[in-house]
Amino acid sequence: MPDPELFTPFDTVLAAYRPAVKVVETGVVERLGHGIAQVNGLPGVEAMELVRFPNGILGIAFNLDPDEVGVVLLNDSSGLKAGDPVERTGRVVDTPVGSALLGRVVNALGEPLDEAGPVITAERWPLERPAPAIMHRAPVSVPLATGIKVIDAAIPVGRGQRELILGDRQTGKTALAVDAILNQADQNVICVYCGIGQRGTAVARVLDDLRRRDALRYTFLVVAAGEDPPGLQVLTPYAATSMAEWFMAQGRDVLIVYDDLTRHAQAYRELSLLLRRPPGREAYPGDVFYLHSRLLERATRLRPEHGGGSLSALPIVETEAQNVSAYIPTNLISITDGQIVLSPDLARKGILPAVDVGQSVSRVGGKTQLPAYRAIAAELRLAYSQFEELESFARFGTRLDAATRRTIERGHRVREVLKQPQYQPLPAAAQIAALLAVTEGVFDRVPLERVAAAERAVREQVATRCSNIGQRIVAGEPLSDADRETLLTAARLAVGGLGDAQPE
Length: 504
Hints:
The protein is α/β, with parallel strands linked by helices. It has 15 helices and 16 strands. The chain folds into three domains: 67 residues, Elongation Factor Tu (Ef-tu), domain 3; 252 residues, Rossmann fold; 124 residues, Lysin (Up-down Bundle).
């Protein structure tokens, strides 16, 4: 006979067990479309609530009609069919947040895409979160250095700013954003690359660029490829922003790149048309402005008593035939704090980065600019804008006076100095030395084809002879007359033996 005491623990557990009634509200799939499901039932479902299909397929209640629910699918629905049950979860969609995300590639749900194992974090935050209150925000007053001469000097960006990057295809929009990420290596800034509807090869290229340059130690990627369901593409930037906000809540400075919001709007338009929402301009639904405004309003700088962190946004939008007055570009221009316009004409000429200085603007970044930049920025923009205006007249072969020819010749050299190879962000002191030299005429006698070599020589000379000035520039001290003269003297010595250049 078995020992009766052997079963005593089991008897105790059974005696204490009280069965509970679990009420589960279920519906039935009526119809399936591309990335959506029409569900009958679920009378108590709430807007944007997460619902579960068989085989772990998830969806979001998007349309709440009197007789059915339009659900946006978040997973591959190839195994789903009409008649399958649908179950409420009682919660909104969320995503993991925490420092474990650094160096990883994930989707909007926090599922790994890099074959490095699951992402284990202690917290999960909802994808949709309210933007910080007005009284919790601080003015944009700290610069966000991109390492790109034309941006840091003429179109400065501050921490907490939303600066739009727009241009046609193949004009270098992603390259500009990647260079800005690479420049944060020693700036104590966390970076997030959010790819929306991008080709797998394009995302792989960005990942490879970041990995080879050791940028993944402070960067992570949130990706929805072009072949992913449109619902997942719509949620991706919100998930990336929630992940970034966790770092901001810890008092960190964060830079997030949305690449790109044109595809995001197109995915949202696709879902809206499939769910028979009324179309508006360019067939976009009426709430497409709210789609992006509630996203970008989450980018800000917090007051010290609320953590003091910041979230800077570089949204990218693709234009067609330089049409910045299209629906999505105009919406985003009105939401953001400025725009960097890339010109296909400059790109075709090999002038990279192809930034159109005349059309680009930073509405709040000028207040954050280092004083040394401000000392030369106005003169630089004036010289460049005069050159661009006169350049068109010079094509007609008209006779030009000596002053006009000097302006054009200097403008050509300013353009050469503003060129910058990809993956080579520059520190502030090197940028200021080169820009000061060209605006003060140090390069005027250097042959145009040798300006790039002259600029490198200037940067090397200044780094060797004027390191103390560079430290004061980064510390935010203004450029004194003595500092200017020291930099110019070093620049003249650097270009003294290049071509026809002579020390002045």
